[in-house]
Input
Amino acid sequence: MGLKSYKPNTPGHRQMVVSDFADITRTQPEKSLTVGKRATGGRNNQGRITSRFRGGGVKRQLRRIDFRREKDGVPAKVAEIEYDPNRSARIALLNYADGEKRYILAPLKVAVGDTLLSGPGAEIKPGNCLRLGDIPEGVAIHGLEMVPGKGAALVRTAGGVAELRAREGDYVTVRLSSGEIRKLHANCRATIGQLGNLEHMNRSFGKAGKKRYLGKRPHNRGVSMNPIDHPMGGGEGRTSGGGHPRSPWGQLAKGFKTRKKSKNSSRFIVERRKKK
Output
């Protein structure tokens, strides 16, 4: 697992740095675990654009990932490590002893042929899934649930890792990869280890067309628009309009807190990721 650069034979190759995919063992997904993915173009069910600058892109198949890991006590063998176009982390194909196949997020130090287990009594090693209450303090984890039984919601990107800090009654304290420290119920599950594909953040697209492959259209700045199209538009020459950065509908873009003060889960946050 590493990065690969190209000779500067073309303008696009001059800056391009991509993954060498050395950790991938199979290029075609398990057909029984895939489903078609419809492109939205940033539009909602009424056909109106709710997320700008999206559209196009190559066709993808959605891999069904097992975020719940509820097959307790059934050993599973890692059959393949695969690339998933829908996420930054690699995925691993598990063959369970009862014949079922499932995808999970692939942690570091998990290779083809390894045997993984979930549930009470599972060993503390990368890829095994346990309750937070059964994991020792100081262990690196990923794929954390926020609600018991709902499935992993936190720390799911490439290189993601969290640390279990302490226990207190029915709750445990976890430091997330963002720096935030929050409490989670001890019955929530998490997977041991750090997620793989650490070099994902160091890749370079090399050309604008690579963004179009991902379904991202050119992002037009507000200051380059006319006043009728954007609050920051207009003016002679290049100007920011004299106002604070904001969206076309007036939503402030910098320094304005958008999190609801009455959000119920705020009481579980011990320390914010952004310190004052």
Summary: The CA atoms of residues 80 and 229 lie 50 Å apart. The chain has two helices and 17 strands. Helices lie at 11-14, 208-213. The domain at 221-269 is CATH 4.10.950.10 (Ribosomal protein L2; domain 3).
